[in-house]
Design brief:
Elements (H helix, E strand, L loop, with lengths): L3 E14 L2 E14 L3 E5 L6 H8 L7 E6 L2 E2 L5 H11 E5 L10 H11 L8 H10 L14 H13 L5 E5 L7 H18 L2 E6 L2 H4 L4 E6 L2 E4 L1
Parallel strand pairs: 3-8, 3-9, 6-7, 7-8
Antiparallel strand pairs: 1-2, 1-4, 4-5, 9-10
Helix pairs in contact: 3-5, 4-5, 5-6
């Protein structure tokens, strides 16, 4: 069994816009160890969001190889990739994506049901909720929660099924400085306490400083890291 969570070799992605080809990724090589917290940074158009979507199994590459927790993503069928996403990957997005008619607890539980996990009695996850500071906010709907609380609910939803990999796309992009700091400290704490592998996409060097390693991208290539 590989000790790496992510193994990428010569990854390319070409988008077709009419007769024009746009190369979003140009031969990316990247290894990320299990339990590592990695920030991927770069300007708009650098390819970091395309890399995020490929790692999450949301879009296929044009060429190259991608192994996620020892599984070859390109060898899987669409349904197998969907199953892998449900079991292996947790997503945290900038816009929270909480369902407004459900409470925080129900937003978290829906991730359990989608993954086929009916177990709500999970002592480890109850400890995580305490770490996230959500135990007294679970019966509130998103409109009654602050932006920082909504993002913490989104993080709880992403890790409720104990995914091997947590992918966070600009998780502090909609937060003020105080809440950004709290969310980043929580991600670092999850990484340290639970050995959660985290890949965070960000344009903010201050956010990237919370990671163990920073990978810099430009023009579809890794230029440092």
């Amino acid at each position: 069994m590989t000790s790496n969570m992510v193994e990428i070799h010569q990854l390319t992605k070409v988008y077709h816009q009419g007769d024009v080809e746009v190369s979003a990724l140009r031969g990316v090589d990247l290894s990320i160890a299990k339990g590592e917290f990695v920030a991927i940074v770069g300007p708009s158009g650098s390819g970091k969001s395309t890399l995020f979507n490929i790692l999450g199994g949301l879009t296929p590459p044009s060429a190259g190889t991608v192994q996620l927790n020892g599984q070859d993503l390109l060898a899987l069928t669409d349904s197998e990739r969907t199953d892998l996403r449900k079991r292996t990957v947790g997503f945290v997005f900038q816009k929270y994506n909480l369902l407004p008619t459900l409470t925080a607890q129900e937003n978290i539980d829906i991730a359990r049901y989608i993954a086929g996990n009916q177990t709500s009695d999970d002592p480890q996850f109850q400890e995580t909720l305490k770490l996230l500071g959500l135990t007294d906010r679970l019966n509130h709907k998103p409109r009654a929660l602050s932006g920082g609380e909504q993002q913490r609910v989104a993080i709880a939803r992403a890790i409720v099924n104990h995914p091997a990999l947590l992918l966070a796309d600009e998780p502090t992009g909609n937060l003020d400085t105080e809440n950004s700091t709290r969310v980043l400290e929580l991600l670092r704490d999850l990484n340290h306490r639970l050995h959660q592998t985290i890949i965070m996409i960000t344009h903010n060097p201050e956010a990237a400083a919370y990671a163990d390693r920073t990978v810099h991208m430009r023009d579809g290539r890794i230029v440092l890291g």
